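>> received
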Amino acid sequence: MSVCNTFPGLIDYCPGSHNHFFENYAYIKNFLLEKIKEHEESLDVTIPRDFIDYFLINGGKEDGNQPLKNRLEHLAITVTDLFSAGTESLSTTLRYALLLLLKYPHVTAKVQEEIERVVGKHRSPCMQDRSHMPYTDAMIHEVQRFIDLVPNSLPHEVTCDIKFRNYFIPKGTTVITSLTSVLHDSKEFPNPEVFDPGHFLDGNGNFKKSDHFMPFSAGKRICAGEGLARMELFLFLTSILQNFNLKPLVHPKDIDINPVLLGLTSVPPAFQLCFIPS
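>> returned
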């Protein structure tokens, strides 16, 4: 990846799995372009059905007034990002969460106790439960803070000349943000290298928000799928822990939680576990 980023012309000539990636990306994008065309043909502005409809109704305007150039292309790329990020990043976070819950069974026990008390066994968890489950909410936030899934976020481009903290940044400059410096800030999170849901709890055990929590990046170009991802993480993890006990194949102290760095994201090492019906 480093070589191809430095010499992008090599990508067209080098064999490898990246060719399959580009093929799959093009397939998904073309599929979504077809769906966008179907949405255009059946659009009813009074009954928007989904994200594509809302985008089309809004006219693809940036900041609510200026039309985007190549708006359908822009829409297709945005939906493609939601499609891909909503599967890969979410599944990676879930895998890492399960690994951490194996490593720290006392955290798992507290979450399961809260699930039993608030949700019980006779219905599925729902989003309304989250506000009554501060420890579970704190655990999920701590998972995302601790794993630092995308350490340097994604590249962004300055759309106009701007002065920031006495630095002049010209239009077109690529900006890379270090999310690690915020998520692992020792002033905000004491012992940031330690997995501790208490980082998001106050002295009374209530959930505590933090302005330093930004695993979805920061600013107006924050991850468009944040709301969906937060819902999925809560519902998937609580449903799993409601119905199963997690059993590692090795002693918790021997579980490796150090990430395997692959490209842009921090990926957990391979591991095995047993789901024991509770």
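>> The mean pLDDT is 90.
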